[in-house]
Specification:
9 strands; 3 helices; globular
Length: 172
Amino acid sequence: MLISISKTAGLDLNELVFGESSTGGASNVEGAGIITIPRVDIQLAAGSGALNGDSIEKVEDIPFTKGFLGGKLGRSSADDLIILTADGDSMDPLIADGDLVMIDKKRNTLSDGVYAFVYGGLARVKYLRPTLQGDIEVISQNPTHKDELLKRSDLEDFHIIGKVVWCGHRFS
């Protein structure tokens, strides 16, 4: 059974059982087709906004297969990808309270879509839609929350973190 698992995972038997390759080195996760993406302790408010303080720390690395990143997200590396946590229910059912959201920081040019952004010092996640006048519509998925309009003249404190490219739902 272990031999079958090692062949399927692309690991030799020593890597599977002892965590080291037959050459004696530590197991190479990336060599096994796994790419890790950092999750940091930033709360993205799916509501009115979240203050996060001045220090940002990595909580953990979350593994994804190269096949998933390439096939589902069109990515071959974890460069500029980060995972944050949603806080609130304004984006429910698309993004629920406590969900993990993967942000592509390279995709920071605004078009219709779900983005992580900072406005007025508060980190948020919402559907954003630019208008012809240069304003930005901030749209909640949950109909109990009101949509907002950020006027072009008020956008000096607006910063896009990146576009949401994946969401991991939790089940209770």
